[in-house]
């Protein structure tokens, strides 16, 4: 397979830690990219944010990253998105779709806590941003999927917070990404809207098979959505948890037990 290295600094070869079997991750068609992170360091002057981090993300996997504020969660996401550059180390991608097909920045989309919609454009026009003309029909189809087809002609100011986040999700997915990066996108929503959005994200991930990486402070959300949860502490992966629960997930004894286990690990950092 061809790959695209975002890390511009050479690193020595080293073995990648064993991770869950990719056949356990998503039973549906997988178009997501495999991500290999090796010896990743990120410094800001004398401050070490990430240090000697190794991580292997399978194609189509849904990974959640948890940890206390300042542990490097959002920095790692920004490095994967090529919004920042590593101080040292490599981030490499491999396409699951075709052996000769590499991954570029066009295959990666980010959804932030703020929906970042243009207030002077309609909802449909916001979803169409960056799409070539022949692909703009994707916007209408995705607005229907996120339940906003009847809102297409409205302005962002006319929507609720949850509806604006649905628009941001449709905009991200209109580009058919291989990797979707979610940087606490549901943090500002009320509890019921948040649950609706979690269900919608899971549904679209299952249908489309992209690789998803979620940064969240909400441990319950991580257990609800992820195949695997990693806990960052002081720039290192402190622990990993495999979420071996059937989908759609119910908050039963097994769910609550894993949630408490992850929460206890976060509190111990």
Report on the structure:
With 269 residues, this protein is of the alpha/beta class. It is built from 7 helices and 10 strands. It has helices at residues 73-80, 123-127, 137-145, 161-173, 191-208, 219-225, 253-267, and strands at residues 3-5, 33-44, 47-57, 62-66, 88-95, 108-112, 179-183, 211-215, 228-233, 236-242. A 6-stranded mixed beta sheet has the order 6-7-8-4-9-10, with helices on both faces. Strands 1-5-2-3 form a 4-stranded antiparallel beta sheet, covered by helices on one side. The longest helix has 18 residues, at 191-208. The protein starts with a strand and ends with a helix.
Quickly count the domains.
2
Please work out how many helical segments DSSP would assign.
7
- By helix and strand content, what is the structural category? alpha/beta
| Total number of beta strands | 10
Give the ordered list of helices and strands: EEEEHEEHHHEHEHEEH
End-to-end distance: 38 Å
Radius of gyration: 18 Å
* Relative strand content: 15-25%
Q: What portion of residues is helical?
A: 25-40%
What is the strand arrangement across the widest sheet?
6-7-8-4-9-10
Looking at this structure, what is the CATH superfamily of the largest domain? P-loop containing nucleotide triphosphate hydrolases
Q: Report the uncertain regions.
A: 1-27
Average pLDDT over all residues: 86
The description of the largest β-sheet is:
6 strands, mixed
